[in-house]
Design a protein that fits this description.
The chain is mainly α. It is 74% helix and 0% strand. The protein is rod-shaped and about 70 Å long.
Length: 137
């Protein structure tokens, strides 16, 4: 959040862009939504009250974009969490208790690393083989 008193960031930002330019207006509004943490409904009302009808129409597109980005991040995170749970469960079945440091590593890993480790688990003879980048699968 920017420092200093900012009472009407949407007005100041929209005054700096060419209102006829839809992409510039969209970028300005995306900036306002992200930086000033305004809700889209609040922004829509403020734009209407300030007479920025051209930009008000863009808010719906921004809402759709933000929703899609959130859904994608949620889906990706959900997949990684599912793989992490599977890896932990299978690793415990094969090797017993998993050290807390490894649990943390697994839970914070991305989906690609988890996929590699799941494949390595199939041929691993030790717990360390699962995480060794030289392990062939």
């Amino acid at each position: 959040m920017p420092s200093g008193p900012v009472t009407r960031p949407w007005t100041k930002t929209t005054e700096r862009v060419d209102l006829a330019s839809r992409s510039a207006g969209r970028r300005a509004l995306e900036y306002v939504v992200r930086v000033y943490e305004l809700g889209l409904d609040d922004l829509r009302k403020k734009l209407r009250n300030e007479g920025h009808y051209q930009l008000e129409a863009i808010v719906e597109t921004i809402a759709e974009t933000l929703l899609e980005q959130g859904e994608t991040r949620g889906f990706t995170k959900g997949r990684a969490e599912g793989k992490a749970e599977s890896l932990l469960r299978l690793t415990r079945k094969k090797f017993g208790e998993v050290p807390e440091a490894r649990v943390d590593e697994i839970q914070s890993a991305d989906a690609d690393a988890l996929e590699r480790w799941l494949e390595a688990l199939l041929v691993a003879e030790t717990l360390e083989d699962v995480f060794d980048p030289r392990t062939r699968h």
